[in-house]
Specification:
With 217 residues, the chain is an alpha/beta fold. Helices cover 43% and strands 11% of the residues. The longest helix is centred in the middle third of the chain and has 19 residues, at 65-83. The protein is globular. It binds 6-O-phosphono-alpha-D-glucopyranose and magnesium ion.
């Protein structure tokens, strides 16, 4: 019995939201826009381009295309400088345990992330080899909540979408999984992720028996 297990990266495998936040905050400040933690929440799962568009919208600012491109580059440069310091201590609790359990059960595993920095991050935290497929921001043309990223992952694993299970921390990601006809498992707060089929605050709350049920359903 094989299912496809698809993991979002930021906020599910590693807590990079804090680095995205710092980089966006500094960037917003450089163009006199205030950027709050609450706004950062709304950027979870949202692509780099869309994120900057939203920040400009919140700040009531219009800029030239050139400045837009340059700001995107600046943000990523700073984000990459944070990423450079990452190691496997930044893997979220029990993520490795779940990945190893799935591998022991011979279940196909894919990444399904909006990030264009997914590979270097997985390399930094030493998890790249756990994945049978990596689908990230470089492979998609439509951002979550569009299901494209997860449908490509299912194809890469050669598993039907209805036999796939998605782990997501963002509302947009949960919606994408639901639209793809996959089982959605929210990692985070129940109130925020109420559209998910199941919600766990983190992987320490997830028993192996639950994963076994998913495999055998
Ligand atoms: C994830 C994060 C977002 C981020 C996006 C793009 O979805 O949750 O906050 O904007 O990836 O990441 P990137 O590394 O390509 O800038
Ligand atoms: Mg995420």
């Amino acid at each position: 019995n094989k299912k496809g297990f698809i993991f979002d990266l930021d906020g599910v495998i590693v807590d990079t939201a804090k680095y995205h936040f710092l980089a966006w905050k500094n960037l917003a400040k450089s163009i006199d826009i205030d950027f709050t933690k609450e706004q950062n929440e709304q950027l979870k799962g949202v692509s780099r381009v869309k994120s900057l568009e939203k920040i400009l919208e919140w700040g009531n600012k219009t800029i030239s295309e050139e400045q837009f491109t340059s700001l995107m580059g600046k943000k990523n440069e700073e984000y990459l400088s944070f990423i450079a310091t990452m190691d496997d201590n930044e893997i979220l609790p029990d993520v490795s345990k779940v990945l190893n359990y799935l591998i022991a059960q011979k279940q196909p595993i894919s990444l399904g992330s909006a990030s264009k920095n997914a590979r270097p991050i997985l390399e930094k935290v030493n998890l790249l080899s756990k994945f049978d497929a990596i689908v990230d921001g470089n492979d998609v043309s439509k951002a979550k909540p569009d299901p494209e990223v997860f449908l490509i992952a299912a194809k890469a694993l050669n598993i039907k979408p209805e036999d796939c299970i998605v782990f997501e921390d963002s509302v947009a990601g949960v919606q994408a999984a639901n639209t793809a006809n996959m089982i959605s498992i929210g990692i985070g707060e129940k109130e925020v992720l109420h559209e998910a089929d199941y919600v766990f605050s983190d992987f320490t709350e997830m028993e192996n028996s639950f994963i076994e049920e998913l495999i055998n359903r």
